[in-house]
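Section: Multi-chain targets

For targets with more than one molecule, the full set of components is provided together so that the structure can be written out for the assembly as a whole rather than chain by chain. Components appear in the order listed by the source. The example entry contains two components.
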Amino acid sequence: MGASFPLEPVLEVGEIQGNILGGFNKDLQLFVFLRMPERKDAPVRKWLSECVDRLTWLDEVVRFKRQFRALTAGLAGADPGHLASTWMNVALSYPALARLSADATEFDSVFQWGMPGAVGRLGDPTDPSIRGHISQWKFGSSGMVPDILLIIAADREDDLGDRLERERVEWSGAGLLEIHIDQGRDLSRTGTPGSFPPGLEHFGFKDGISQPAIRGRISEADNDYLNPRDGVERPGTTIEYASPGSPLICPGEFVLGYPKQSDSLGREASEPWPLGPQSQIGNIQRPSMGPLWAKNGSFLVYRRLNQDVPAFNRFLREAATRLSASEVPGLTPERFGAMVMGRWRSGAPLLRAVENDDFDLAHSKGSNNDFDFLNGGSGADQFPPALADATGDVCPAAAHIRKVNPRSVSTDQGGEVRTLVRRILRRGIPFGDPLPIGSEDDPEKGDRGLLFFSYQASIQNQFEFLQSAWANSEAKPTSQLTGKAGHDLVIGQNPTADRSRFILVGVDQTRVDAPPHVEWVFPTAGAYFFSPSRTALSTMLGSSGPSKGRSSTQGASQRRRKRGRRAHGNRSGEH
Amino acid sequence: MAETFLPPAFMKDFDRSQHRDRLYREWHNDMDQIAGRGAKRFPAAFSAIDPPAGSKPKQASPEWTGLPRTIKRIVGPSIAAAAKQVDEPRLFGSLDPLEPRLWEPFRDASGNPFKGTLYRSQDEYLEWAVKRDPDGVIREVVFTCEGPEYWDRIASDEKLLVELYREVCEDKSVALDDLLFDQDVTWVNPYGGRVVERFPKGSYNRFNRWNGVHAVHLTHPANTLGAEINLALQATRPYGTPTLVTSDPELACCAAYGDVNRMSDPTIGAGVNTQVVQLKRRVALRNPIGLYIKGMQPNVFNLPDGSPFADQDKCWSILRPDPKDVTDMVLRARFRVPDGITVKDQQLRVGDLQLYGEPIVTGGQIADVITMTLYALAVPGAPEQDAVACLFSPCRDANHPDFIQTIPFGQSCPPNGVSPQLNSVLAAGAEQAAGASQAGPTWMQLSPDDKAPLRYSRSPS
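Its structure, encoded as tokens over all components, is:
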């Protein structure tokens, strides 16, 4: 007899690391990559178990954000500067997990082989002489995979520095070796205050506007949802939205152990990813996604993506100049950039601001994400209603935001519901000093870009799929409507030998080729990690570890509840 | 001279026949009947050789991958485990993991099951044959997407038929008798008992053993050009009353123009339907009509030590059409590591490679990274049409939550999902695929009034 899976399960908020479902979203973030000492696991286990109460769990992030929302509501949206926190999360790569737990071999094979095994699939250069080849990375090539990633995030510089030093003492004491630190920083916190608005990436475009919403409750109360809902019924779709452009997706797509999103029915949950030893159906072996203790954990993909800002700006200018002289009169580099991205630099969607950027629209939360590529907008707000543009006449079918999230347009995978199971939780932040917007000069050849990282329950089906099957494709995801529409010219890579890329723009689908052998986004480091639960860190990884198979979910849950109550009491007065 | 429908991928096989002109003419007639004049039955369809005057068609190309999504939905998440279920040719009447009920469509003159016909349980318009070394390691996999109708036409010139089989199978021992029925047989509707087609002794047997072993052309009963064309035409109608249904899986269930669990059918159907219903365009399949291999996802394989395999391109060779004649339409290709590519001084073989961290133990794993396509044309001007009432709705399967069951439209899904006996069939199918059971299949007579949707069909018949 089949089981039904709860659509809004109660999330174990004291078990799940806070950045996964809550999102730290701090302006200042450090990514510390550590290596375990040879043959000395015990101090590392001790460090991990002691870390548990210094880490930030979902309950704390939720409390903070609710408090923040309440305060900003009273301040008409202004930032309540006195509310600040410093948060930390941890993740381990497969080599580290395999050292610390015998049943780590139950993790899925894509995670086990890690990013060194994935670079071909991801479309990274195969020629060692080309920038972006894994041999040139700062870390992440075979034998250079960090064991541990610490994420430290703060609102204030001093807090961040202090926390780093305190943590450094701890990890050094455990014999962990610091192999690299990436410093993520919102560009508004660099250079002259006010020179950059918040939330931009180095090409000058607002990033991170559209995120999926996550189903699930944080208590037994019926409506105590992790992600609040606007309650608006949207006709013509089987998907439920929390707010415009934010579809509700079952938590099992991001955290293991919870019901997955049904990939055929928008408002149904499906069986969680299997955990534990391989299961059997008849005589078929079903590999699992991880060991039993992987429950409440999530896979973390880290990609250090450098951005060649002058090359990108030069391309925009030259292509716009060429097109404006023929097929698209009056085209500016800014508008062509909006075509490549799908949004203007401010974040205003091209389908709601066709000719010029619209800062009011960009800053209107809700309206700036209220559009669809298939259906026209309702015009319920003061901004121009979104155009219907299934074939990409206005917003090209290969625009970045369409490639990675085609919204309600059917894809090669099927209807809009099947796009839900490909979504990821993006938590990226820029690194490096910015150049002036539009700059084509960089005499110092600065090291800058995006520290991309995402959480998902299946690296293969989510992150890798979006990159390799859609962004890197000259045709997918909507070729059944648009034919060969081109590549995602922001993150897409053509894995074939010539690595050529193009995009079709305008009503006449004019082809614009990217300059040969110039890639303005290229990886310089990366790795796959796993963010374990509190219980996993305390009992499986952070202690000497019970023997394989002893990780009773019920027992772990009971232990967690006891510790959780203590921990909650300790942290309640932190803010 | 009026344009005619040409053989898939502009193949030139007919040029080698003494009956060249007849073959071209008959092929044109075959296609014209269903996609030319046949398209006239559908107001929003048009014939690619007779497009609306003055129109400048835009091209669209649905894409899908070759490993049956149905088996992935049932078995997942391991691609290797899923592919194992469908990798080998099977006898009609044997248990099939994609089909919950046994059926044996071929009957002899006495009405008894006719034994010995082979097909592949690979229903995404791509089929493959695996060749292994004596130690069981895969040496090569050959893929085909040639529709059986084209080979039916070739078979009208027996000399050409044998000649081509010998070439494609790379075996001079192919004999004409191997390719023909040795007695009168009939093909019956498996769920209704009605005779669909009669094959007199001496007529071409699509399911002959050479095709079974070498994958000369498509064998799955749903893998036909006619099915592709019919699906595309049916999809030019609006579905759902009073509210239009425009998105999958509801659309594929409502229209019942194909199997909702496949990847190909819903992708093709929804692509066409969106063109017509939402973009108000008329649609045709581009001449020459065919199902095509677009290519293989680049750089997806790894060496045994997990490092990327840099020579993937060298392993992929197009067999039909001749490489010098290839445009954007490929019908047959081979994946094999060329001699001389070694690891630790040993010749590398396909079975030594890995995909998504799993060793290659099936051809289906490779099929999963092969992109399939067909080419459609669209022009403005779809007329208004009355919507067709829905036939079915999607429901969750009780045992395989990712597998979609269909129930009659208007009924409610059971809270715990629809509960067929898929598990037991799958388990038995797996045993047979693994060679554990050599006993002959048990014929199960299906009731003539069985109204369940035909899983094998791309259109209820």
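Chain B touches chain A through 72 residues (CB under 8 Å).
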